[in-house]
Structure formats: structure tokens, C-alpha cells
Design a protein that fits this description.
Two copies of one chain form a homodimer. Chain A has 301 residues and is an alpha/beta fold. Helix content of chain A is 35%, strand content 20%. The first copy, chain A, has two domains: 5-114 and 282-297, Nucleotidyltransferase, domain 5 (2-Layer Sandwich), CATH 3.30.420.40; 127-278, Nucleotidyltransferase, domain 5 (2-Layer Sandwich). Chain A is built from nine helices and ten strands. In chain A, the strands form two sheets. A five-stranded mixed beta sheet of chain A has the order 3-2-1-4-5. In chain A, strands 8-7-6-9-10 form a five-stranded mixed beta sheet.
Chain lengths: 301, 301
């Protein structure tokens, strides 16, 4: 009997990554291409998998971690769709249905952030945790919560980027979020940095006051998340977090915001191990998509 | 073979409830008595169980839901202890050890709030949810998070009462929390109501402005919790929530705080079913303690 062959798609708003693998960290073939129209992009992914099957034998299951918003509710008629995305061409795209119909395999489906959180959890910085938080701070702020190797969904899925934050006294910026103004994303994602300081973060020097303020807002959001979830680790990636000077300041502010209430060495002393950069930043998404495939393998179509 | 006999203790700061049962909702004997010194109180509980065993046969396992703070970390030498509680007589009490030594059975242990959350989840308002939030608003604000029938612990356990809230413009109260001042507990627990208005909540009329303000603070805290956890339901009990006029106002404010971002009928239309009062308010704690017993039965001592 041949080994089950897994397929995965990291469906991003700007690029697709497709891979086939015998295990989530044993990738045999991989391809990356820019996200175009749904039909063109999904067909290209499907043709890649078809070519892989010719060479390697039948694919057993597929996992997709997708940009969104997506509908994950099994009871919903739109389950498996990308729904009301600002990428208008992709609105109401039945991405799961497209592949299920053509490949005739069970399809695991989750958000891109949750897939990356799962990948980072199993094979990266979350590998020794049963409850952790994974955040990306980039053009938006997204987060995934993993409990016992599964991404938490609940009603929909967490939207930690939209937690309300209190503006700092010295900051008069009104926030960029069309829904909430001064939520965490509105005050601390890449576009907020760019609008507040008049240029993109990448062009600001390392000792620019932007980074201390950034650390302060992120820590304020983290405090609410720590009190609600009690994560064993917080993994923070995305473009903004490449400014590694944010980390030490943010750890100090988190301690201040918690005010001594959560009296654990992870928070008061060993913070370098509590709030960390991802270990597999660029691979976490596709690894997680393959984990979703592994999870549904043999579960029926 | 006789049916396994479960024992449970709801160890509260003011009273102990002890029960033996063939299932968490099939209680055979129950006793309640005030919490005195640790030795006196725990001995009384132990004697109750010993008497039950004489009559009903051997107890298979014990579950304890305890006031705290408690140490739940299996790696800690103080695991199973009540630790730095303001009830000084009880500080550093090895409650699990006391019963394990005398009864020689496996002991399940969690916070009183988590036990109540588990009880309410399995047999109450959370029975159809796999992810829900259980809150008690009384002399403090505590919360339990249940995911797939298990109470979430993570690093310690959630402490949602200490989420920071923004004071409302018309409220100058400085908050009662010695750690954070104006956190949710500091602004909205029973003592905050009493200090702000000069008399306990129970003496304020139903249409007093205290209740609208209370609803506003609670909703602000709930917004952060909804965005972090995505619960399928929020169950809110405790003395303050007996003021049932809080519920409709709180549901409206939650919708406002979320600003349309979580666009689900549970939040925008069917709120009466999303934020609810517990179904088993007085029995949830002991039921949860028995669930903890059931969970460790047969798992070794």
C-alpha cells in the first residue's frame, strides 16, 4: 500500500502556495504563483495537483488555509466559501467546492492565519504548548488561537485585531479601522504606522518613537488576550514584527499592563521565551494547510 | 460489579457543598455547611464521604472545584493547593493532598468558576456549545472558558475580570481593583457598584442609572472577550446578574462596541439566546465538581 499523499494550498490575497507531501514537513513538490482571478488561480492550482498525481499517484486529501473572510460554519450553505472580501473578484467564491468537485477527496478548510498557527504550533515555536496565541502584524492584525492542536473557532473565529485600545496620551491619531477607529488594528497595523508618521514603517529608523508607541499598543492588546485566554506562549510574526526592537519594549509594557496580577515567571521574568517571533515564518502557512489535509484524510468526502 | 460512586466538593469561600453521586446529575447524598478553618472544614467533608461509603460502598474518585487562587500546574510542587488567598487561614492549604491521603482515590481539581462552567456546559445553558464563556459577576468578576467540554487553563487560567476598560465620560469613579484600578472588576463588580452609588446594588431601584452604566462596562469587557475567543454563547450569573434589567441594555451595548464587525445573527439579531443567565445557577458548581471526579475516575491516584 502506497503512502497517503497530502495536498495543501496556502491561498493568500497576493499569492498562492500549493504543495504535495507525504507529511506536513515532507514536501515533495511545491509551486507559488500570484493570485489572479478565482477561475484562473484555482485552475492553476488544480492543474498542479493533477500533474503531481500523474507522477506520484493519487492524492488522499486536500487542506486549504485561505484569506478571507471565509465561512467555516458546517451548518451554513456558504461553508467553504470566501465571502465578503474586499478583493471583489473573489467575493462569494466556493473555493472548497471547486477542488472537491474536481479532485473528489476530503477537503480541510480554515483561515490562512489559523493554518499558519497550526503549522507553527506543530512544527515551530508552539510545539511544546497546548494553548497558544499566534498573531500577524502586517497590513492588518490577525490572530489564531490553538488549543490542543486544534484552531479555536467557536462562533466564527477570533478577531483579536479589533480589540479596543486606549490611545496613549501623546498620540492623537484617529485610527484607520473603518469599523472601530482606534482598535488595535486601527492603531498598530502597518497602515496606521504609515499614516501616523507619514511614511511606511520600513523607512523609519530603528530608534524612531514609532516603535515604542507600537510596542505600547501591542502590549495593551496582548494584556486583554492574556487575561481572556491564558496562552502558554504568544507567537508574533508579520511584516511589522521584523522590527525586532519592538519585542523588548512590548514585553516590558505587557508586564506593566498586567500590573502584577498574573504572577508567573513566564510573564515577570522569562519573557523572551513567552513572546517570540515565529520559527517557520514563511513555511507555517503551507505546513498548516497540509496539517488540515492530514486531519481530514480518511474522514469521507 | 457495582456502579462507580463519584464524590464532589464545591469548596467556596463561605460554604462547602459535598455530594456523592452515580453520575453528575444523579446525586444520592448532599450536605452543605459554612467554611470554617481548613482542618475543621475538610475533616467535616471527609467524614461525610466516609459515612456515605459505609452506606453505599467505596467512592471511586473525587472532584474539587475550589475558591482560590489555586495552583493547577501539574509541574508545580504546590499543585492542588489553595495558594495566596485573602482568606488567610486558608493560604497554602493542600486541599487535594488532604483528601487524596485519606480517601486513596484519584482527585480532579479546578477553580470553582471552572467547575461551575463545566457543570453549566454539560447540563445547562452551554449544552449545545463547544466553545463558551461562563462569567460570574458578584463580589468579584470571574470567568471560565470551556472548549470541547474541557475548562481552558493555558498558562494559569483566564482572569477575564481584570481586562482593562475605558471609563465612560459621565463616570469619574476611580475603580476598586488594587492591581488595575479601572479594570472590569474594579468598575463593575458588586463593591464598585456599592462604592460608586453609596449603597449596595440590591438597594438600588431597577431604573437607577447604575444599571445602564453596569451594562455598558460589562458589554465593553464582553467585546474584548468575543473578539479573542469567539464564544458560541456567554453565560452570565452571580449576584449582580439577578438584576435582569442589565441583560437587554448589555446586549445592545455589545452590538455597538463590536461596530458591526462580527456580523453573525447571534450578535446582531438573536442576542437573547447569545447572552444568557445560567440554567443551573445553584447546582452548577457541585455538578462540575462531580464531572471533575468522573473525568479522573480510573486514571490512577
Amino acid at each position: 500500500m502506497s503512502k497517503p499523499l497530502l495536498a495543501g494550498i496556502e491561498a493568500g490575497g497576493t499569492k498562492f502556495v500549493c504543495a504535495v507531501a507525504y507529511s506536513p514537513v515532507d514536501i515533495i513538490r511545491e509551486t507559488r504563483f500570484p493570485t489572479a482571478s478565482p477561475k484562473e488561480t484555482m485552475t492553476r492550482a488544480y492543474e498542479f495537483f493533477r500533474d503531481c498525481e500523474r507522477e506520484l499517484g493519487p492524492i488522499t486529501s486536500l487542506g486549504i488555509g485561505s484569506f478571507g473572510p471565509v465561512d467555516l460554519d458546517p451548518a451554513s450553505p456558504a461553508c467553504g466559501h470566501i465571502t465578503s472580501t474586499p478583493k471583489l473578484q473573489w467575493a462569494d467564491t466556493d473555493i472548497v467546492g471547486f477542488f472537491k468537485k474536481r479532485m473528489n477527496v476530503p477537503v480541510g478548510f480554515d483561515t490562512d492565519t489559523n493554518a499558519a498557527a497550526l503549522g507553527e504550533g506543530r512544527y515551530g515555536a508552539g510545539r511544546d504548548c497546548d494553548t497558544f496565541l499566534y498573531l500577524t502584524i502586517g497590513t492588518g492584525i490577525g490572530g489564531g488561537v490553538v488549543v490542543d492542536n486544534r484552531a479555536l473557532h467557536g462562533l466564527v473565529h477570533p478577531e483579536v485585531g479589533h480589540i479596543r485600545v486606549v490611545p496613549r496620551r501623546d498620540d492623537t491619531f484617529a485610527g484607520t479601522c473603518p469599523f472601530h477607529g482606534t482598535c488595535l488594528e486601527g492603531m498598530a497595523a502597518g497602515p496606521a504606522i504609515q499614516q501616523r508618521w507619514g511614511k511606511p514603517g520600513i523607512e523609519l529608523p530603528e530608534d524612531h518613537p514609532a516603535w515604542d508607541l507600537e510596542a505600547w499598543y501591542l502590549a495593551q492588546g496582548l494584556a486583554a488576550m492574556v487575561l481572556t485566554l491564558s496562552p502558554q506562549r504568544i507567537i508574533m510574526g508579520g511584516g511589522v514584527m521584523h522590527q525586532s526592537q519592538i519585542f523588548p519594549a512590548m514585553r516590558g509594557y505587557l508586564k506593566e499592563f498586567l500590573g502584577g496580577y498574573v504572577d508567573r515567571p513566564e510573564i515577570t521574568e522569562e519573557q523572551e521565551d513567552y513572546i517570540v517571533f515565529p520559527e517557520r515564518e514563511n513555511q507555517a502557512g503551507i505546513t498548516g494547510a497540509l496539517l488540515l489535509a492530514e486531519d481530514v484524510a480518511g474522514k469521507g468526502k
